[in-house]
Amino acid sequence: MLSSSRNANHAVKTHELPDENLADLLPIAKKIAIAIGAENYNILQNNGRIAHQVVDHVHFHVIPKPAATDEEGLVIGWPTKSPPQDELKALHAELLEKLQQ
Amino acid sequence: MLSSSRNANHAVKTHELPDENLADLLPIAKKIAIAIGAENYNILQNNGRIAHQVVDHVHFHVIPKPAATDEEGLVIGWPTKSPPQDELKALHAELLEKLQQ
User: Fold this and answer.
1) Which of the following is catalytic: B10, B52, B59, B61?
2) Which residues of this protein are catalytic (chains A, B) (predicted)?
């Protein structure tokens, strides 16, 4: 587990962290992945109790996936929806606009 | 979905990306999280087919979790083990040593 706790900034969720702190995190996750030596792994970061966040401080999990089984490593469920194309297009346009702000 | 494809560097897995490219990614994920406006969300990055990676290019998912249900957003299973304390201590020491290299 990789935590931002050594930073001066305390933040519960990722979007609350300054960019300069965020920039530091993935190079450290990379070091951890290499140290673990896992060929297959997941990097997971949870924001909010209902999104599986247990510790109220931004932190990243580097989780080795040793085998293609539900008995080890991260198991993922990802229910999908199929909204109408025009709804998707509208959402896409809305997000693009917000990203340009 | 946030991909590193606009970088000059193509990499399949996170630990293959140069630090300077990695540093760029989370500030972008933050922008996306803010644009989505989700209070609760997960950031997920998969490395390797058996670790749920479908596209062979480093990419991050920013996944809103609208409700505490298995019907929406990311659902996580995380089988844990309870190895003996001395095994954990040995692994901890080994990882620390590798991280200092």
Assistant:
1) B59
2) 59
